[in-house]
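Hey,
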Amino acid sequence: MKRGNLLYAQSGGVTAVINATAGAVIEAARRRRVKVLAGRNGIVGVLREDLIDTSAESAAAIAALRHTPGGAFGSCRFKLGTFEANRAQYVRLIDVLRAHDVRYFLYNGGNDSADTALKIARAARALDYPLSVVGVPKTVDNDLAVTDTCPGFGSVAKYTAVSVLEASLDVASMAESSTKVFVMEVMGRHAGWIAAAAGLAGKGGDDPPHIILFPEVPFVEDAFLARVQATVDRVGWCTVVVSEGVKTPDGRFLSETGGRDAFGHVQLGGVAPWIAQRIKDRLGLKYHWAQPDYLQRSARHLASRTDVAHAVAVGRAAVAYALAGRSGVMPAIVRTSDAPYRWKIEPVPLTRVANAEKKLPRSFIRRDGYGITERARRYLEPLIRGEDPPPSGKDGLPRYVRLKNVAVERVLPAFEPEA
């Protein structure tokens, strides 16, 4: 393949460590003397020919991406249609890549992003354009197929477990005359990986969280409320962790708001206050609830060192695969040992990742459906180990970087992609 430029873009919900991957991509490409462009706001920016020249950034700024949360180049939720029904969109995409001599395309995201990368790889072949396309894994939901874990998950898992531990100490202190039940909602539409991570806060017995509600286990209100009451009677208080994707026995989300996102997914939100209100109405117990939402995925100050290492490794591997001419692949994390924890990176076809979803195994959920098993604990614990704190300024706040994001000059007619 003719040597050219590399294009990197971020997609979907960002994480505490997606920028660590971005920095690793740029540093690895620079070592190989390959220029890196970035799509502003993901594939949408590529279609608009809204590209960023990362060569305008200093080595120090790129290195600081390792410690900076959010998406340095902007992200998006945009679904490419099929090649047959949206040929003009793919032709535009290839025109943009050709105009800027892009021969390598790295798309950093989750399930839908893997699907996008696969579609682009196939479209490039159909349009006879030499392009190496590599999907780069990222998602706090930990639901990408094949890979043992997903960069972004280890840090949100650590944040969740620490938050449950600390908040439960607060509740225990106040339970005698105040709050009896604390309900914390976590992300997870169909897969309960983040909810399961909350179980690391306790070691068993009456340690919190006393109840975890998983998307994989149907919610039965009477059984749940009986469990809450029994816990309060025995312990004096109760901590509940609920995934946003919890469903009724007939398959309805408890927290459907009626809307849908750009990928057609049902919009969720507000299951914690709903659960808390049922506790008050039927049990008469005083409660508090929390919905960390963006806080759980942006908490770089509490990132897992293991997670950061994963994020850096997949970025470096993605560059190596692309420059070697591989296309339609993704660097996957392969666990080789639990104790001691060991892992490696291997390429897997995007055909095995796109449109697949890895749910929490039933063997990770206790028989009663309200907690995690020792097998789950063995899987989860290594992923939250270690700290990788950002540098701190004199004002006591983390020193995060803001890139210049210098735009590349457009050479093609304007184009506005249709969702």
